Amino acid sequence: MLIFKATKDTLKDLKIQPGTVGKSDLFFCWHVNIFNLYRKKHYVFMNDLTRLSLTVTGIRSGQNQKLKELFLNGLDGIIDLSIRL
Predict the structure, then answer these.
(1) In the chain, which end has fewer C-beta atoms inside a 10 angstrom radius, N or C?
(2) What phi and psi, each to the nearest 5 degrees, are found at residue 21?
(3) For residues 49 and 41, is the Cβ–Cβ distance under 8 A?
(4) Percent of the chain that is helix, strand, coil (3-state, to 5)
């Protein structure tokens, strides 16, 4: 299970409430931050163990539900790229 540790601004933007999680493996924990650039939202995900960063760009206000799909596609792309190297 992936665990996302979101900043206060990210929680507010996604309109979700924080929850508590028991002990977990750092490999599956990600920090999430948000920033706005040219009226579009950009989310930065960083893995707690490996410090691998993934940026999901160009999210508009009504497209928050696409964030999960875009994150998983981006992570899949990084894994595919690392396997080819």
Answers:
(1) C
(2) -130, 140
(3) no
(4) 40, 35, 25
Burial grade of 61 (CB within 10 A; 0-12, 13-18, 19 or more) = exposed
How far is Cα 64 from Cα 34, in angstroms, rounded to an integer? 12
Q: CA 75, 78, 79, 83: dihedral to nearest 10 degrees?
A: 170
Sign of CA dihedral 69, 73, 75, 79: positive
Model pTM? Answer: 0.86
| pLDDT of residue 25 exceeding 80 | yes
